[in-house]
Fold Tellurium resistance protein terZ.
Amino acid sequence: MSINLSKGQQISLSKSDGTALTSVRMGLGWQAAPRKGFLAKLTGGRDIDLDASAVLFAAGQAADVVFFQHLVSDDGSVRHTGDNLTGGAGTGGDDEAVLVDLARVPAHIDQIVFTVNSFTGQTFAEVQNAFCRLVDETTGAELARYTLTGGGDHTAQIMAKVHRSGGGWQMKAIGAPATGRTFQDLLPAITPHL
């Protein structure tokens, strides 16, 4: 059973039987919003290149990142499935995904922050049906879904984070708008959420 998360809501990353999750997938899906007006009919739709990234933090400092140009973390515990330049899944499957083997994440990594940015610079007013979701990679069950709010003149969002809590992991939906075309641009906006 999936939980629809609201901004700031946290969930524990444990299975219903009380055991801890070992592998999760943070999926991202989106569609380009239909253009309006006479010129839109002539030029057709416009592709939107959103990029999912995962920034790994150790004691508040960025220690590694996984994104379309660095598909696997240095330790191998986090893996990006590849760059999608156009979107299209929207309400269906994932256009981009980041796989996290929680059992293999090094002990010094205490938070993993997931971001999305418009590499081509379009704002979220030009995006529809955007979401991120957390899936138990072992069973394929969707655990949580966070709908990325449409509209606005921002080009990025700090989506969510997974962080260590006690002996396990928790997920927190952040949903904070930001400005930037790459994960590097977003680092100052991530800091308040650590």
